[in-house]
Structures are given as structure tokens and as C-alpha cells.
Design brief:
4 copies of one chain form a homotetramer. Helices cover about 80% and strands about 0% of the residues of chain A. By secondary structure, chain A is an all-alpha fold. Chains A, B, C, D: InterPro entries: DUF716, TMEM45.
């Protein structure tokens, strides 16, 4: 769907996942640091099951939308010896791989002995396939159109590489936050593409060959990422303060502080050492 | 052999290896998890010897086929001051490096102290050399021909990098399954190239400059990979169920479940912890 | 600011940071080796707080300079339906990301449980954004201008990758010294760009299309790096000798030598082994 | 020196180092496996000192040759407002970085606390600088000349990446053998370039624009690498058999076999396990 909605729909999916991850991972991280690893594992595993189901549902909606919009291919691939609506078929393919990744997420939940890391590998592959299709997708288009999509590719391939590293480094909070930030970036950038290429309600068209516009769009991409990083930071802080207040109420304050503030412990140790030195 | 058979032959080799790996690695993985590491090592080492011998035999067949087909170079490199059938020589070179990798596999079996990882390094190099030759091979060809071969390069270089990582991370099931999936993809893609560039029995020729065809081929490549992933998944499941049934028959059920379902153990532990908390 | 000062200002910032790092990291390294890890941690943490504050101050100066120089955009982005001074806005964006990295450095100091490695990730992102903007920045310029900026990109992306690796390998002295050397290289190269593109006081202009000039500039870039490496080596040696003299004065000579010269210990062990063998 | 000797000289340097490494590293590897790590360390450290001195001597010869050949720049960089013999200056720069790497090797030997890995980082940088200069060096040349040099770049950048990994993985025999093979490849390829671009004694010139020649050269590069791998394998085997014979003479046969043949031990263990199972 080369129109506003066709970009807004996947953009919204990525935004939802990015924002959700930016809350989930800090939550998991603080939980692990406070209560040890094994306790809340089950809850998080269930969350990931739900995530998998959501992925499958979202991608199913996406595929249906691409196939059965009025000007869609309606599951026909060839007609009169020519291809039918290849663009929609390509988008369906992208959704399909995200769906596969969702299915692996679901299978990982059940005691089927799915190897650790396969869920992240399948996600990395889905992201890579998206990038691959986009890469060959935008050739023979006006410069601004090409440029705005190739900026998207930076977020896409960056995300794919980062998730690939997560196959080997599980539960690495920095990688998880990086992934969240790239998902939000992708989501908001899809919306930006929609606004630039298919201006809403009579807004003036962008000149697709103007070099100034291309320069602005590059910078605009960086601003999107800056906003994405700030959102990640705010969510992280919110989670931190919620967790802290909850813990304080739960009265096990002393133990908590010891675990929460390794810095203070170091300070104390340093002071102790200094004191013992002076003696 | 720039014809149907010249692509179908290597395609079949890759398919055979990819399918075989997609059974072997899950088998090895479950065996290790169930019975500990040392027990079945010898059997797997023997399998790898056989694999090495197969590689040498296959590549020998490949080289002979490239050299001694009726229009082959028959081991002549220069004739009347010009090169003879360089295409066939290049293919022979590709086979040769896979042969070298097979020889290293064989040497690894014998107690010669071949360093761990050398077998995978030599395989990675063989794959890389294949990619390198293909890369310079397809210049000056029609767009569709170039594009269909450059998609192959994604599978080739992806495989090479993945095997290179296996040099450092031995017996990593996710990497091994990834490698299997790329081998199947390569195999089936060689067949696809054969069908597109050398249509069998009077099928219509593809228009090699049509942009729509190029877009379809890109998507088709993704579908091949999707099928490859599904084959991998099915083989994995089959192995899992076979292993499980065998084990159940062998009556050591309780121990087995404990080892097979770490998830259930976690559940039990969580329940235990919850109970002890409530007290 | 596409003039001499606009390149000299960031160049000076990078030089200051590069030189400072080339002293700080050896200092930290020797301290850790001599006294164990925990002792001076607090001091180094405070240094990093100061570093973060410096980054924020420097980038604030940079942004103000870019915005409010006489021919700057004065915070206006759009005027009469066209973009205002996008070059200055791009430079402001680069400074902004370094500022973000500074803020993360400051937050890392306080007991807020900021995950380890986030400070380096944010620095790597700032460097990457700088490279991204430069990459699209220099299109449609004369060959020498393009070339001199694309050499800068080698230092920029090299630095970004190296810092990205530091996210996973903390306190790796070789990586830290590599980063310092690239920062010095970037700083001195900014000055070189300033001298080449905006010759001072009546110096003759460079012919921007001469192939010989491009060849010289490539080599000149290598010389800059050689000088950068030599500066790093000298600073390392100076730190080493200062630390050693201080330690000698502190009278714990015997313990020191044992810790400082693992080589001598190996020699002694080897001699011991040889002796026990001969018996 | 854009002539036969100017390529044969560095080619010989690389060949000497590659061949030497292909003997040194297996020797060190077997020694470590047989006698434990600490014993022969001193001997190997001394070898590396000698290697460093050799590097410095070789690069000094190289720089002198480039500068003071009859048509060299004789240390003049600018004359009559134009650059003097930039080609020779670029080659001198390449040698200089290898010299720097040699100096670090020498410093590493002495008890100066040079961080582990710095010697390999400096070597990786020297190789990278060589690649960088070559990359910009060959623009505006006939196709065959460009192609033959860009194949060299594969060996160069491959080597640089591999040595960069060695910074983190010390004494990894597979990486060391890979590096040796790339050094031999680079050496023999320099000789090949010399023979192709500057044919000796009246041999016919190569047609530098013929596509067939370019195809042959690509394949020829692979053959060089195959020969390089075979040389590595032979040297490895020779070292293995020499070490084995020496050890057998030294009468500690039983212990030796135990250490040398972990495979046999596994077989024995497997047999033992099987036996205990049957009871």
C-alpha cells in the first residue's frame, strides 16, 4: 500500500513494540537485580508468550490489509502473464517473517526444548529480510524517496545486527535498550515517511529533488533518534522510581539499599580502607 | 557449465548437505543434553569423517564434470594464446576449495592434533572463495542474471560469516541450524537460477531487463528462505519426537523429564519459593 | 560554520579529549595493576563526572556558536518556506548528541543504577551520528573537499566501532588507547581540513581537482595518525615513569617489582624449573 | 617504485614473514600442549624480540630503497610548488607503519609493562594503513591493474581484521595460521602483480582491458591462496612429526601419548563407560 496508511500501519506496530520493550526490559532488569534471577522468571516468560501472540496477530492483520484492501492483489500473484501488485506481495512477505518470529516466541514458551537464542535469531532474520526487501524496493524512485527509505535501512540493519549479537549475549540490558530505541525510531520514521511522501489534507507536496530537503531529512532522522533516546531514558527512570517506591513500602529497606546502590557500598569500602590505612 | 545441469548439480550438493545438517545437529544437541557430553562423541566423530569423505567425493565428481563435459576445457588452460573455458575452470576452483575443506575434516578425525576450529575455518574459506568468484563472475551480464546471482551472494557471504563465528563458538546449536538453513537456501536457489536462466522444455524465456521480474525474484528469494526455515523447524521437531519416544521406551523416564524440561523445573522451583515465602 | 573557525573549534575539542584520555587511561591502568581495583575507583569516577560536565559545557558552547554567529540561523529553521542555514543546524545536531553522551556520563556517576556500558553506547552513538551527518553532508562538493572529509569518516566510524566494542569489554586498555589515538587523529584532521579548505592569511588556495593533491592528502592522513600514535606512546611512557618513581619513593619496592615485572617472575620460575629438572 | 623490483621487494618480505610464522606458531602450539605454558615462554619471547628487530631492519631497507633509488624523491616532498614522487612517499609511509609495529614488538619484550595486545593492534593498524593507501592508490588506472590490486586488498583487509581479533584472543592457533596463510598469499600475490604488470625479459605485455584476463586473474588469486594453504599444512605436519620424534627419543613416551592423543583417551573413556554400562 504505497499510501499514507500503508506506512502508518507498520509504523504503529513498531512504535507499540518499541515503547513496550522500553518498559519491559528495565522492569526485568531491576527485578533480577533485586530479587535474584529465578523468582519472576515465570512471569516474564508468560509476557514473552503474550508478545509472541501479539506479533502473530499484528502480522496477520498486516498481511490481510495488504492483500484485501480494495486495490490489493487478493492473493493473486500472476494474471495475464504479468505480476499482480508486487509491492503488496513484498509487504506481505515482510509481515510473514515477523509472524514466523512470533511463532518461534510462542514455541519457546512451551517445554519443547527450543534452543536458547532461536527467538532472537528469528527476529534478527525478520528485520534483515525487511531491510533486504526495502533495499531493492526503492530503486528507480525520486532522490528524496530513495534517501528517506535508505535512512530507514540504517535503523533496520542496525537493529538486525544488534539482535544478532543478543543471540550470544542474552539479557544484556544495554543491547535490549538499544533495540528498543531502534524500534521506536523505525516506528516514528515510518510515520515521517508517510507525512513526507503522502502529505495529508492538502498540505503542499515536498520537492523530491531538492538537495536542501534531503539535507533536512537526514538531520530530521537524527532528531527522531534523539527523541527516541529521550523516551527510552524517561521510561527507564519511571520504572526505576516505581520499583524503588514499591520496595521501600515493602520494608526490606536496608537490604534493598545494599543491593541497589553498589556505588554507596564502594564509597563505604573506600572510606573503610582509607581509615584502616591511616591507623 | 552455464546451463541447467551446471546449476542443478551444485544445488543438489548443497541441498543434500543442508538437509543432512538439519538432522545431524539437532540429533547431536539432544544427545548431549540427555546423556552428557562424552558418551556419543565417537559416533559423531565418525559421522564427520563420513561427511568429509562425502565432500571429497562430491567435489571430485564436480571437478570431473566441469572439466570433461563435451564442451569442457579437458584440463587445458591456455590454447593459441587465449584462455580456454575460464567459466569451467572457475567452477573447478570452487569445488577444489570445498574438497580441501573435506580433507581437513578427514584429517581432524585422525589423532594428528589438528587444531580445533580448523575444519570450520576451511569450510568458511571455501564458502568465501565461492562468493568471491561469483562476485566477479557476473559482471557484464543482463540485469536479472546479475540480480539473481547477487541474491545468492547474500546466502554465501552470510554462511561464510556464520561459519567463521563457529570457529570460536563450537557446538552452538543456533549457529549450526542457521548454517543448515543457509545451505538449503543456497541449494534451492541454485535450482531457481537454473529454472529462470535456462527454462526447461520450451517454457517461455524470462525478460531479463524487466524491473517487475527483478522485484519478484527478490521476493522469491525470501520465500525460498521461509521454506528453508520451515524445513529446518520440521526436521528439528521430528528429531525431538523420535528422541523423546526412544527415551520413554528406555524406562528412565523420571531422569529424562528432569533433564528435558528445565522449564518445568523452574516452575517447580518458583512454586517452592512462593510457598516458602508465604510461610 | 563552513570556515576556518568552524573546523578549528571541534578540532580543538577532540584534541583536548584525545590528549586527556591518553593520560587518564594509562594512569588508571597502572593504578589498578599496582594497588588492586577497589582503591582508586572513587577518584576515577569523579574524573568521569568532570569529563561528563566538560562534554556538556563544550557542546553547549558549540551549539551556541553554530546558532548565534552573525551568519547563523539564530534558532530559526524555516523562513519564507525554505530551510535556514541547514549546515549550522546539522553541526548543532552533532554537538547535541555529544551533549547527550555527557549527560549519561553524569547520570552514571550518581547512584541511579544506570546500566554499565550505557555511557559508552551513548558516546558510540554520538560518534556514529557525527559520521552519518558528515557522510551525506559532503555530496556535491569538489573532489578534494569530498576526499578530505571521507578520510575523516574513517577515523569517525573506526572510533564508533571501537567504542561499541568497549560496551562489552570494559576497562580494556588497548581499546581505550586506540580510542584516544582516534580522537587525537580526528582533532588534528579537523585542523588540517581547516588549513586546506580555508587557507589562512593569503596562503594560496589548493587546487581541489588535482589528483596529486588527493594522493598527498591520503598520505598526510596516515602521517597525522603516526604522530597521534607517537603522542599516545610518549604520554604512556611519561605516566609509566611518573608512577614508577612515586612508587619507589613510597618504599614498598620489593612488592612493587614483583607486581610490575611479571616477566622477571617468569624468568625466575623458568630458572627454578630448569634447576629442578637437572636434579 | 612502480616497477618489477618495487613489487618483488615487499613480496619477499611478506613471504619471509608468512613462512616463518607458519613454522613458529605450530612449534609454539605443540610446545605449550606438551610441556605446559610457562616453560618455553622465555624462548618465544626472545624470538618475538628478534622478529621485531627484523621488522625494523626490513622496513628501514624498504624506506631507503624507496627514497634513494635513482628516480626516487631523495627525501624531497615539494619542489617548484608541486609534489615529488608521491608514489614513493606513499610506499615509504606503508613501510614506516610496519616499522612502528616492529618497535612495539621490541618494547613488548622489555619489562616496560606494555599492555598485552598492543603489539597485535599496531600490526593490524600497519596492515590497515597499507590497505587504505592501496585503495586510493589505484584509481585512474587500467581495469586489470585496478583489479589485480583490489584482489590484494582482500588479503590485506582480511589480515587486518584477523589480527584485530587476535588483540582479544591471544595465542589462538587457528587465527595465527590464518594470518600466516594471508601473509604468504600477500607475498606471492605481490610477485604475481610484478610479473603481470612489468613482464620480465621481453615477455609479451598483458592486455589490461581484456575481460578474460580479469577473470583469469581472479581465479589465479584463489590458486595462490590454495597453494598458501597447502604450504601452511605441510609446515604444520613437518613441525608435528619433528616434535613427535624428539619426544619419543626423550623416553617419556607414555605421558606423551596421553597428552598428544586426546582422541585415544576419549575412545578409552567411551569403552570404559560402555563396559561399566553392560555390567
Amino acid at each position: 500500500m504505497a499510501n499514507f496508511k500503508g506506512h502508518a500501519l507498520p509504523g504503529s506496530f513498531f512504535l507499540v513494540f518499541g515503547l513496550w520493550w522500553s518498559v519491559k526490559y528495565p522492569l526485568k532488569y531491576f527485578n533480577n537485580r533485586m530479587k535474584g534471577k529465578c523468582r519472576n522468571n515465570m512471569a516474564y516468560r508468560r509476557l514473552e508468550l503474550i508478545e509472541g501472540v501479539m506479533k502473530v496477530v499484528f502480522t496477520f492483520i498486516g498481511i490481510l490489509a495488504e492483500q484485501f484492501v480494495p486495490d490489493g492483489p487478493h492473493m493473486h500473484l500472476v494474471q495475464d502473464h504479468s505480476w499482480v501488485k508486487l509491492m503488496n506481495w513484498q509487504h506481505s512477505t515482510m509481515y510473514f517473517f515477523y509472524g514466523l518470529s512470533g511463532i518461534i516466541d510462542i514455541l519457546t514458551y512451551f517445554p519443547l526444548n527450543v534452543p536458547q537464542g532461536l527467538d532472537r535469531l528469528s527476529l534478527a532474520l525478520a528485520v534483515f529480510i525487511e531491510g533486504l526487501l526495502f533495499y531493492f524496493h526503492v530503486q528507480n524512485r525520486p532522490p528524496l524517496d530513495q534517501h528517506i527509505h535508505s535512512l530507514l535501512l540504517i535503523a533496520v540493519f542496525g537493529g538486525s545486527i544488534s539482535i544478532m549479537i543478543e543471540v550470544f549475549l542474552k539479557d544484556h540490558i544495554v543491547l535490549e535498550m538499544f533495540r528498543s530505541s531502534l524500534a521506536i525510531l523505525q516506528g516514528s520514521w515510518f510515520w515521517q515517511i508517510a507525512f513526507v511522501l503522502y502529505p495529508l489534507g492538502g498540505a503542499p507536496e515536498w520537492d523530491q529533488t531538492d538537495h536542501e530537503n534531503i539535507m533536512f531529512i537526514t538531520m530530521c532522522f537524527c532528531w527522531h533518534y534523539a527523541v527516541s533516546l529521550i523516551i527510552i531514558a524517561i521510561n527507564y527512570m519511571l520504572v526505576y522510581w516505581c520499583m524503588r517506591r514499591n520496595k521501600d513500602l515493602a520494608a526490606d529497606v536496608t537490604i534493598g539499599i545494599r543491593k541497589l546502590n553498589p556505588n554507596k557500598r564502594e564509597e563505604a569500602q573506600a572510606a573503610l580502607l582509607a581509615a584502616s590505612d591511616e591507623e
